[in-house]
């Protein structure tokens, strides 16, 4: 059939005079070009309309997350009976503050900071809330958060790593699921080292327990990770060169005098991690710390040093297993800890806390054009809640800032609400953080002279990442 048809066409075409043949060829080509042009234009229009749709969506999402939400709590009337520990902390007759109430396990406000009704758990197993409304994907900062087995998530002082090959997020943090106690009169509350937990999730909300990926050492008392020591703020990055997952963590004795960093490695994100060694980076003390991997694959260790007076930043070796000699002191004499670093449009940002032990304090945001500094302090990034919320980082302390994939300029600020009396029941405070690059904002912020965008962390009693995020 095909051959016959072709022959027929050839036969007729041959019979057409030469000049008309030429005109016909031109006409056919014009038509082809026209059709191609139309279809190109159409795809282009479709693309740009979907792009502007995305931009519109993005704007409405930003408006939603950046809504300013107020929060109220009333200080309870003064009572005579207080827990002896709280009384001791208060010292003489200074009026009680919201922080005193927060730290006092017998306070009437306890429930406000540490709700414990089962109906209020963040539960990924499709359970309805008290009003029979599905609370799927909603973060409720401060509430207990369950994993897919129904157990409270134990990943304190943690950080999140996205792994392309598995399309999963991995949340690493301290397993503090043991009794809180004081080692001696003047010692702070502590929990023995249990190890570093890992959870995996496709959506940053439904977390599956992958177990303890770096356990504490139970018998060898001279081991860095002996259960009587301290392991805090574990963070993991991936090393392309050696195809290894590298974990850095704060390693210390129970009096915080060793002030070192430890390193562990694994071939897979879910471990087990092999502990390598600990060090004082370039000979300096290192307490609260984090690591940051830049776009050019260089990585850095940022740590509180010199009795928490300064932060230091040290570049890591190419295998990420040690520091190089390249080191700078930053935020000198500012007494900052709990650093978390992120980058947006070639500017580096950092959120830090003050140094007040387990008690919450005011966060500060900082910015720099080069990661090695100079770093400039921008101010308190907390927005909404109330005055006390803003002065206490929403009664929590930052640990990590996670970029929201597909939403440039949008991040999740991850923080810990430390439960001083019972550290295992410390809560997670995850909130939207945005880098607000609008020119008007900059003008207002710093009389038009600053090159820095504004960093804002918005309080929400309940919020979720845009549904578009889960499709991407
Ligand atoms: C929720 O659903 C349960 C079971 O269907 C029902 O018994 C209960 O009254 C409902 N609660 C509310 C607040 O609607
Ligand atoms: C105990 O730990 C130390 C320090 O890591 C190590 O040198 C030593 O070999 C360990 N001892 C045993 C019996 O494993
Ligand atoms: C911590 O300090 C206390 C009091 O100074 C002391 O008794 C204890 O031995 C110290 N512990 C360690 C592990 O250094």
From TrEMBL:
Residues 72-93 are annotated as: Disordered. InterPro entries: Glyco_hydro_43 (IPR006710), Glyco_hydro_beta-prop_sf (IPR023296). GO terms for molecular function: beta-galactosidase activity. Keywords: Glycosidase, Hydrolase, Membrane, Transmembrane, Transmembrane helix. One of its GO terms (biological process) is classical arabinogalactan protein metabolic process. SUPFAM superfamilies: Arabinanase/levansucrase/invertase. It holds the Pfam family Glyco_hydro_43. This is Exo-beta-1,3-galactanase, family GH43.
């Amino acid at each position: 059939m095909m051959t016959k048809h072709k022959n027929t066409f050839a036969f007729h075409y041959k019979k057409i005079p030469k000049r008309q043949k030429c005109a016909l060829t031109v006409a056919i080509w014009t038509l082809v070009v026209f059709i191609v042009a139309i279809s190109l234009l159409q795809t282009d229009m479709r693309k740009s309309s979907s792009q502007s749709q995305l931009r519109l969506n993005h704007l409405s999402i930003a408006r939603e997350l950046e809504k300013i939400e107020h929060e109220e709590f009333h200080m309870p009337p003064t009572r005579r009976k207080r827990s002896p520990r709280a009384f001791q902390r208060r010292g003489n007759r200074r009026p009680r503050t919201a922080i005193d109430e927060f730290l006092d396990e017998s306070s009437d406000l306890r429930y406000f900071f540490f709700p414990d009704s089962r109906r209020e758990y963040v539960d990924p197993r499709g359970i309805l809330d008290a009003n029979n409304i599905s609370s799927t994907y909603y973060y409720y900062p401060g509430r207990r958060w369950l994993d897919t087995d129904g157990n409270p998530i134990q990943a304190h002082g943690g950080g999140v790593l996205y792994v392309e090959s598995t399309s999963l997020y991995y949340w690493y943090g301290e397993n503090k699921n043991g009794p809180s106690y004081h080692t001696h009169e003047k010692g702070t509350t502590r929990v023995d080292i249990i190890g570093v937990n890992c959870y995996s999730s496709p959506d940053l909300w439904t977390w599956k327990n992958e177990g303890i990926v770096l356990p504490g050492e139970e018998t060898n008392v001279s081991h860095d990770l002996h259960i009587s020591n301290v392991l805090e703020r574990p963070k993991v990055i991936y090393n392309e060169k050696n195809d290894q997952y590298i974990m850095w963590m704060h390693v210390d004795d129970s009096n915080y005098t060793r002030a070192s960093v430890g390193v562990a490695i694994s071939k897979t994100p879910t471990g087990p991690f092999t502990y390598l060694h600990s060090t004082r980076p370039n000979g300096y003390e290192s307490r609260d710390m984090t690591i940051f991997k830049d776009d050019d694959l260089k990585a850095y260790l940022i740590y509180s040093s010199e009795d928490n007076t300064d932060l230091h930043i040290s570049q890591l070796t190419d295998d990420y297993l040690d520091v190089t000699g390249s080191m700078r002191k930053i935020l000198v004499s500012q007494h900052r800890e709990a650093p978390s670093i992120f980058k947006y449009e070639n500017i580096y940002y950092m959120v830090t806390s003050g140094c007040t032990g387990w008690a919450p304090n005011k966060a500060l945001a900082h910015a720099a054009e080069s990661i090695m500094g100079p770093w400039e302090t921008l101010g308190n990034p907390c927005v909404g809640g109330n005055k006390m919320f803003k002065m206490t980082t929403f009664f929590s302390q930052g640990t990590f800032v996670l970029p929201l994939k597909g939403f440039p300029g949008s991040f999740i600020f991850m923080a810990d609400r430390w439960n001083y009396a019972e550290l295992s029941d410390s809560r997670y405070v995850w909130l939207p953080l945005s880098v607000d690059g609008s020119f008007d904002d900059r003008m207002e912020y710093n009389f038009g002279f600053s090159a820095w965008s504004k960093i804002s962390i918005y309080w929400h009693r309940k919020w979720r990442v845009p549904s578009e995020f889960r499709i991407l």
